[in-house]
């Protein structure tokens, strides 16, 4: 960004002062997640420990401009050591809590240094939402750091304040809901170059100016902070092994020790350990001080082996190690006799529990429990975990025993493909409908396989089905489409997916029927675009029976008004229990600035509206870092030049690449003028000019007033 600064000298002077860098606490991380997943991290950038009893955390709710009543503030206690953090988490830890009392997720509880505000009626502070300002204050009310803008209630994407609540967003003036709302359902981490808090209520609060953002319920950056204030050379801790492997005895109760990991720090810094991956539903926990891994929720230990990742931190970015946890149960060779009556392949009942006969080899003589098993895609698999619903059975057996009545359950495949036209085509179209005289002609004159006209986006298949949709000129009707002799398996699946490519936006409809029954459904998700592949989803949950025919009408315009023939393509007809449309991920991104000066930073903002995101890879030639997996990265450009930016986003195994050539222009730093000489082009927030006068009094005027900030002092 380039701005023109014009300085004009008058008479008189004034004095302005501001706080010094790295001399007081500031907020280093903000967590506003789902439910009660709320936390604030405070960082001590100084060279000495700080007593927290001189500070308070204050919530300014919904645009409240003045210091609120006492229930909106909480007084802190404890000590923060030099260059360490202090994590405050809302005190909601009852595992049986529901609604407003629902517990904080275990992974966030693991990160807490203190839990505060258990009772909303006593203190409201930690019940903040994305539209609330927060302030770290001294006891006299002076600001140490401000998050948000006090006295302002930002709007949501719809221009309102509820359903959902609003928050500060990525597009100026940051309070209108335009762009991406960042302070709601996000984790925000202070950038490493911030050295002090915001001590004056800002005119505009730009959430991206000093923070990097992560998706909701991301907690792995808590309890450490990289800061420009850290002096000297820091050496990272090292684990005693490159990896660890432990064996957990069967039926181990909560509190059982699984094993220990240990690390040493060359600088003698205090170390903390955290599990960061491979621990869904929190079957295990780790003592953050000792590195001892324990069983936490034994009922969640279901599938071995567990591959978990553990971080150790000395207060800066952590070091990781992989841990494998194996089952202590013996392994046996299992042979399944699958020559059974197919009618028995169903969820077992007390009256008819038999599904398969199992022959189990090499089991030692004695009492042993045999567990439930399951069958996926007609392939039986042994499962040592106890399945809910019925007790396991204990029998006395010998080697090579045969168990004649094991219980089990049949699980359907993840999806059932009706037609993808490249490899599978089980679609049996036997009738054309709604196409006038073409209804009486061969199906192949209206529906036929062709090369994919647009192999991009979500559908790169080679072959698709083409539909010649007749208009009014050829007696076309609303319900134009096909009738297929295919049963839709609504017993095992809840949704039908069809990929379509259409030149117009209109409803789509399916209809199943027999001589007695009939059901119909329109597309669950709206068609958004024309001339691109979209995955349309139909809800089958009200379809009570598998009926022998189904109709597909991809252009159900009612009343029908189109005169001319149009070409519609469809592909990948499949049944699933997933209602989410199959979609390519992010389609566009912007930068908050595209022309900057050397050593300035750029915040990159992907368009995350109505897309699914599994992972991203940014590439920033000339930038620092040169690449990033963070969704909303901030990149510094130290050198002059013009640079490309590329974003690759993945979802469901598909990638979408967005490249912008010569997108970022980095200007050289200009020299500061020796004295005011009229209009002078300088770089925003990068150059200051030191002007003096020998007058006994002076007035300094900046024109226009919004071009910059003036700091005055009397030497």
What percentage of the residues does DSSP assign to strands (E)?
35-45%
CATH architecture assignment name of the largest domain:
Sandwich
**Domain module tally:** 5
CATH class category name of the largest domain:
Mainly Beta
Spans with pLDDT under 50 lasting ≥5 residues?
1-19, 330-358, 360-411, 684-690
Mean pLDDT: 81
Within the CATH hierarchy, at the fold level, what is the topology of the largest domain?
Immunoglobulin-like
* Quaternary organisation: single chain
- Number of DSSP strands? 51
Strand order of the largest sheet: 9-8-3-2-12-13
Termini gap? 32 Å
Total DSSP helices: 1
Descriptive account of the structure:
- With 715 residues, the protein is mainly beta.
- It has 5 domains: 26-215, Immunoglobulin-like (Sandwich), CATH 2.60.40; 240-327, Immunoglobulin-like (Sandwich), CATH 2.60.40; 339-411, no CATH class; 415-576, Sandwich (Jelly Rolls); 589-667, Sandwich (Immunoglobulin-like), CATH 2.60.40.10.
- 1% of the residues lie in helices and 39% in strands.
- The protein has a 6-stranded mixed beta sheet, with no helix packed on it. Strands 31, 33, 34, 36, 39 and 41 form a 6-stranded antiparallel beta sheet that branches.
- Strand 37 and strand 38 (518-522) form a beta hairpin.
- It is globular.
């Amino acid at each position: 960004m380039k701005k023109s600064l014009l300085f004009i000298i008058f008479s008189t002077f004034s004095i302005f002062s501001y706080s010094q860098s790295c001399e007081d606490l500031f907020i280093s991380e903000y967590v506003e997640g789902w439910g009660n997943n709320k936390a604030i991290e405070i960082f001590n950038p100084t060279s000495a420990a700080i007593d927290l009893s001189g500070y308070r955390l204050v919530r300014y709710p919904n645009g409240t401009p003045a210091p609120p009543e006492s229930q909106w503030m909480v007084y802190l206690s404890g000590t923060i050591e030099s260059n360490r953090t202090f994590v405050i988490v809302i005190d909601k830890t009852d595992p049986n809590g529901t609604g407003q009392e629902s517990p904080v997720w275990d992974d966030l509880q693991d990160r807490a240094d203190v839990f505060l505000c258990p009772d909303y009626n006593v203190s409201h502070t930690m019940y903040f939402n994305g539209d609330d300002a927060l302030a770290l204050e001294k006891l006299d009310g002076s600001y140490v750091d401000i998050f948000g803008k006090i006295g302002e209630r930002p709007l949501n994407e719809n221009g309102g304040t509820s359903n959902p609540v609003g928050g500060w967003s990525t597009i100026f003036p940051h309070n209108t809901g335009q762009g991406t709302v960042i302070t709601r359902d996000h984790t925000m981490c202070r950038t490493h170059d911030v050295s002090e808090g915001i001590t004056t209520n800002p005119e505009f609060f730009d959430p991206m100016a000093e923070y990097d953002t992560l998706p909701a319920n991301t907690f792995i950056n808590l309890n450490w902070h990289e800061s420009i204030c850290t002096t000297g050379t820091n050496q990272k801790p090292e684990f005693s092994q490159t990896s660890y492997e432990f064996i957990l005895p069967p039926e181990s109760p909560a509190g059982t020790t699984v094993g220990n990991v240990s690390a040493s720090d060359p600088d003698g810094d205090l170390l903390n350990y955290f599990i960061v991956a491979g621990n869904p539903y929190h079957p295990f926990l780790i003592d953050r001080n000792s590195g001892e891994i324990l069983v936490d929720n034994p009922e969640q230990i279901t599938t071995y082996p567990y591959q978990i990742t553990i971080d150790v931190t000395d207060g800066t970015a952590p070091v990781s190690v992989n841990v494998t946890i194996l089952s202590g149960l013996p392994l046996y060779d299992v042979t399944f006799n699958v020559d059974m009556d197919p009618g028995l392949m169903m969820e077992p009942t007390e009256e008819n529990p038999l599904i398969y006969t199992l022959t189990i080899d090499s089991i030692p003589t004695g009492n042993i429990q045999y567990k439930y098993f399951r069958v996926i895609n007609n392939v039986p698999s042994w499962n040592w975990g106890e399945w809910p619903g019925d007790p396991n059975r204990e029998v006395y057996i010998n080697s090579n025993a045969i168990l004649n009545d094991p219980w089990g359950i049949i699980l359907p495949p993840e999806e059932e493909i009706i037609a993808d036209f490249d490899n599978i085509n089980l679609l049996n179209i036997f009738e054309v409908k709604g196409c006038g005289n073409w209804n009486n002609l061969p199906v192949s004159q209206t529906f036929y396989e062709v090369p994919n006209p647009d192999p991009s986006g979500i559908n790169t298949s080679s072959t698709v089905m083409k539909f010649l949709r007749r208009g009014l000129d050829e007696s076309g009707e609303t319900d134009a489409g096909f009738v297929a002799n295919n049963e839709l398996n609504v017993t095992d699946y809840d949704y039908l997916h069809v990929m379509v490519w259409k030149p117009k936006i209109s409803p789509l409809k399916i209809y199943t029927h027999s001589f007695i029954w009939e059901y119909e459904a329109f597309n669950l998700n709206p068609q958004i675009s024309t001339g691109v592949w979209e995955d349309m989803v139909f809800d089958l949950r009200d379809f009570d029976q598998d009926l022998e025919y189904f109709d597909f009408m991809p252009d159900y315009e009612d009343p029908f008004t189109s005169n001319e023939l149009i070409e519609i393509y469809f592909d990948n007809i499949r049944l699933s229990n997933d209602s989410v449309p199959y979609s390519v991920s992010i389609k566009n991104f912007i930068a908050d600035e595209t022309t900057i000066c050397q050593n300035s930073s750029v915040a990159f903002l992907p368009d995350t509206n109505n897309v699914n995101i599994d992972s991203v890879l940014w590439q920033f030639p000339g930038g620092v870092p040169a690449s990033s997996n963070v969704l909303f990265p901030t990149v510094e450009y130290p050198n002059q030049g013009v640079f490309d930016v590329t974003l690759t986003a993945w979802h469901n195994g598909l990638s979408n690449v967005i490249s912008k050539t010569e997108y970022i222009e980095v200007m050289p730093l200009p020299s500061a003028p020796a004295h005011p000489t009229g209009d002078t082009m300088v770089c925003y927030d990068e150059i200051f000019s030191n002007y003096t006068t020998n007058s006994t009094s002076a007035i300094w005027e900046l024109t226009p007033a919004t071009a910059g900030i003036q700091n005055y002092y009397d030497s």
